[in-house]
Design goal:
The protein has a domain of 148 residues: Ribonuclease Inhibitor (Leucine-rich repeat, LRR (right-handed beta-alpha superhelix)). The protein is 12% helix and 24% strand. It is built from 5 helices and 27 strands. The longest helix has 21 residues. InterPro entries: Leu-rich_rpt, LRR_dom_sf, LRR_N_plant-typ, RLP29. Pfam families: LRR_1, LRR_8, LRRNT_2. Its main location: membrane. It is found in: Membrane.
């Protein structure tokens, strides 16, 4: 009887030894076995039909060790380097961008605790973003853009203190922006655009390293919060934001500003034009009533694009625009401007001003005939004003307002 038990014991010992030898993931594995299991779980959560032969994921062959292989196996994977021969490698980066994979992001991802970068952009992942990602405390880059992720962005995201880039743009995420996002003090780029976020923007001035913030194309409402002073790109277009834009005047490093298609009101004031690095300003389709352009005497101004169309701007056109030497694109259309076009504008057309739009205002006077010779290559429109245009001038194509609208405007009537 005892001999039979010994034979059974040695049989199982032998078969276990043979199984171990046949599985490279567990024989002198360079990669931590639990990390390999996570990679298998991730791949098994993807619809096999969506895994094309040229995708990185198709190269994940689990008969090989992910961190030991070379050549064309386990593409999109980077590993840590073991400190000694007794240590195992860990998965530190996954990049499956643009593979057009369909499926879910397996919550097992939260077990890759050495992960530094996760890029799943431009795929077709759906379902929620797993809250298990909050276990990835070494993560510096989380890029999930251009997928179909839905649900809310987990509030626990604030524990990812090393995160520098967070891009979840172009998904179907909803709910409010988590307040804990203000704890991500290493963040330099934050892109939440093209989702279904609602509520207000949290106070972000504590994110002192943030240089780019994009929350455009959502359903964000309320007034502007305080922003970090290092920010260079601020994109808030196509929301329901309201109030004044004075918080922007403090952002001395701001280069690109897009506040278009919101409900901002009051004045587009001098402070905005005095920002030394500002190059592109789009505050179109809002409810502004005044445009205050300061005279700029510093030749170092960077402003080259100004779009204020679709507001309720009144009065004469701002003469000080001619003091901005790098300005090439100007859109003042669809407002309530009146009076004559400043004669100082004409020399700019065809030289520095290459895109100039004044359509749908109440401007009057005669457009110089010589513009027919100097406006080659200039885009824009003077249509639907009260102007007298020379024959054949392309910028006047589309006609002017009826005389009744123009006369009524001069007497205080009319309008858009």
């Amino acid at each position: 009887m005892a001999r039979s038990i010994q034979l059974i014991f040695f049989f199982f010992l032998y078969t276990g030894f043979i199984f171990t030898l046949s599985n490279p993931n567990f024989v002198n594995a360079k990669t931590l076995p639990s990390d390999i299991q996570v990679l298998e779980a991730i791949k098994n959560s993807i619809d096999p039909v969506s895994i094309s032969s040229d995708s990185f994921l198709s190269s994940w062959n689990f008969n090989l060790d992910p961190c030991e292989t070379t050549g064309t196996s386990f593409l999109g994977i980077l590993c840590t380097i073991p400190l000694d021969t007794n240590s195992t490698s860990r998965i530190m980066e996954i990049d499956l961008e643009g593979d057009e994979l369909e499926g879910f992001l397996n919550p097992a991802i939260g077990k890759l605790t050495e992960l530094v970068s996760l890029n799943l952009g431009r795929n077709k992942f759906r379902g929620p973003v797993p809250a298990a990602i909050t276990n990835l405390r070494k993560l510096t880059r989380l890029q999930l853009y251009e997928n179909f992720f839905s649900g809310s962005l987990f509030n626990g995201i604030g524990v990812l203190r090393k995160l520098e880039v967070l891009d979840v743009s172009n998904n179907r995420l909803s709910g409010s922006i988590p307040s804990s996002i203000t704890s991500l003090r290493s963040l330099t780029q934050l892109d939440l655009s093209n989702n279904e976020f609602t509520g207000k923007i949290p106070q972000l001035n504590g994110l002192w390293q943030l240089t780019s913030f994009d929350v455009s194309n959502n359903q964000i409402y309320g007034s502007l919060p305080q922003f970090p002073l290092k920010i260079r790109t601020l994109l808030l277009s196509h929301n329901l934001l309201s109030g004044h834009i004075s918080p922007v005047n403090k952002l001395r490093r701001l280069s690109i500003l897009d506040l278009s298609d919101n409900r901002f009101s009051g004045a587009i004031n001098n402070g905005l034009f005095m920002l030394p690095d500002i190059s592109q300003v789009n505050v179109s389709v809002n409810r502004f009533t005044a445009l205050e352009v300061v005279e700029f005497t510093d030749k170092g101004t960077e402003l080259h694009s100004l779009d204020v169309h679709g507001n309720r701007l009144r009065g004469h056109l701002p003469l000080n625009l001619i003091t901005y030497p790098n300005l090439t694109e100007i859109n003042l259309g669809h407002n309530l401007f009146s009076g004559q076009i400043p004669s100082e504008y004409w020399p700019r057309l065809g030289t520095s001003w290459r895109n100039f739009n004044l359509e749908y205002n109440y401007l009057e006077g005669t457009v110089p005939r010589e513009l027919n010779r100097t406006l080659e290559g200039v885009r824009g429109s003077f249509a639907h004003n009260c102007l007298t245009c020379p024959n054949g001038l392309q910028l006047c194509h589309g006609g002017q307002r009826p005389a009744s609208e123009c006369v009524g405007r001069r007497k205080g009537g009319g309008g858009l």
